[in-house]
Amino acid sequence: MFAVRGIAVWFSIFAVLYIALSVAVLSVWRRLWLYGQQGSARRCADLLFALRMVPFVFAIGITLVLAVPSFLLLEPRTVNESMGVMPVALGLCGMAVMLAGMWKAAVALVRASRTIAQWSSAASVVGSSAADFGDSTAVLRISAAAPPLTAAGILRPSVWLSVAAEFVLTERELRTALRHEVVHVRRCDNLRKLILRFVAFPAMAELESAWREASEMAADDAAVSSASEALDLAAAVIKLSRLAPLELPAELTTALVHSPAESVNARVERLIAWTERRQTPAKKYSSVYTLCAAVAVLATMAVTYGQLLVRVHAATEWLVR
Asked: What residue numbers bound the domain in which 214 lies?
């Protein structure tokens, strides 16, 4: 009974924190997104992804660091007290969130593996003239018309290029398009997509869509270093968008063209209006500030940890009643 009560309490606290923080993120993310758009696309994409992860990270962290130790250390094991409906319902809700996330992540991973296996059956390595763009990422040619150009894979990601895309793109357009996909590989965007499947939460689709579009623009910026390269990439996006009708991308992949027409038009207009200022490195802040803040937080936790455990245990007692 002690273990069952503990599991119910832990998942209840996780559910309360996760739901409350998710609602808070939903209420503020648009404002922060508009603010982030004033800077680089990379910083905007990182900001959106961090906002999306805040509820889960904080909820699981507080549960493991405070809720679990407080219950194990301060809860009497011999007391046979009944539990109310609320902790049971919240506990089941927390379990449902975790199981649903695990299921969605597993399904996405299996589907992605099957897709890559199908592509690999008829794939060949692209020659050095097309693949030599300063990165060790493998570039494979597939005969299928779709997807024209995409990055796929989690542990060993690679770039997949269709024969049709290689035919319609010039050498310069192909090189910039390949660099775009390599940026997705370097930024581990497919892994981030898998993580978003795991932390699935209702009403977060718009935030996740904004992150995907920002990540595409971030890859655009990183793939070009001059106005001519920006025009080459814009031409590649236009050609591949006309190559085949847009359809839902394969699981855990980042295709060069997969978004609605409005988003594609926005990317093309942004590339045409490319300026040197966009490539100016963002101001870097010393890691000393981050280290000092982390040390201050850890020191505060070390001094007040016992009191925090007592207060958290009191809160869980109120929750059980």
From this structure: 2-320
